[in-house]
Amino acid sequence: MNTIAGYTESILKEQEKQGEDLRSDIRKGKEVFAMYENEYPNNYITNNSSNAENSSANTYHYEQPEMRKPKKPHSGAGKKIALGICCGLLFGIFAGLGFEAVTTASGLVKSTLQKGMEDGDDASKAQADEAKEEEKPLGDEIVSASEWSGSNLVQTTVTDVTEVVKAVMPSVVSVNNKYIETTSFWGRDFSSEGTSTGSGIIVGKNDTELLLVTNYHVVEAAEELSVQFADGSQVQAQMKGSDSDKDLAVIAVQLTDIDSSTMNAIAVAKMGDSTQLTVGEPVIAIGNALGYGQSVTTGVVSALNRPIAVSSTSSQTGVMDDTEVNTFIQTDAAINPGNSGGALLNSRGEVIGINSNKIGGSAVEGMGYAIPISDAQPIIEKLMTRETRLRVEEADRGFLGITGIDVVAEYSQLYGMPKGVYISSVSEGTGAAEAGLVRGDIITALNGEEVKSMDDLKEELSYYSVGSTVELTIMQGSPTGFQAKTVSVTLGAAANAQ
User: Is 443 in contact with 420 (CB distance < 8 Å)?
Assistant: First the structure.
């Protein structure tokens, strides 16, 4: 037994030494794929032969293990460990390379897309800037925002008109009118001074004058006209010409009356094309609302070519006189008293209409009207060419020497009479009597300016002094109807006229 234990101990030490050598080889990086197969002392032979004298019945014999070549199939434990380690390393290496490749490719794609989007944004921005430069809209019309509400796309629009107002305000003025108002009481006439306010638009300039357009009813019967510019300065103005049927008038301001600082602060308005308007298009109204100074209102074009018959009341007869029907732009932008003669603008700051508070008046709410600029411009250009007339002081004015009655639309239709001033009497010793005017003649024009009422006649005569000669166009009755005739009349003093 001691012998067997000795052998066993020797073998175990040998295996331990071999294991140490193997581990040493692995640490040095050597690949060992074979192991020596050792047989432990477990192959015992029980000898039960008849040779009992040489050995007892329970004696065991140990066979010296024979060193064999390493068998590859049975030496797999270490190999499997090494192979597993190598595979793990290879998998880690390839996985790392794959992840790095994906990350790099993703970065390149992202960078390329971002650069493309930036280039696209730059191109879109440049294209938008180019379009903006070509059109030069004054208003940022407009800022749009979109959001999803359920399954529907809701779009909201905010209109900013600050740039339009900033650019156009210098071309809009306030017009102040002082006039003499006459009332009759118990057969006697009483006069008092009245004032009214309105608006105007600077439409041009010549060598000596600054020219402005406004409504005729703003400057009608004016004894004194004044204009207030955007910088607050105020100067006198004179009548250039008017068209009462179209409710248009052109007034002039002498350039010598305007300071250089004011000239730098004002501008000539840009005219638009009202024939290109569409219903629903945004518009801006600027004017001297209620006489408080320039103010701004906004709205849309509510209707186009709205036919309206503008009515006026004769100061002599009190009879309503319907003039010809004109067409107007209807808008929901607030047009209040004082806005008359002001500008109605499109989103580019172009004048597309001349506001008139007289149309519609206080009978309606939320409806304002403007004279289309395409209809008004030919008349404005014609009136701008006329000679500026300075109103004569009342004490120095010439008189015809007649009394008259307005031939209103009702009388014209009933009796077939032309519209104008029906002469009801002629004072002796006056210019009218010397020129051969008689009762029943109808005055229709004075020096080429149309006369439809006594107010029109007085307005025209206010520019002529005593001793001036004027040409009257009259209509005289005959068996074949009314015949036109032109007569020259020398104006006399008020003492000789009625």
Answer: yes
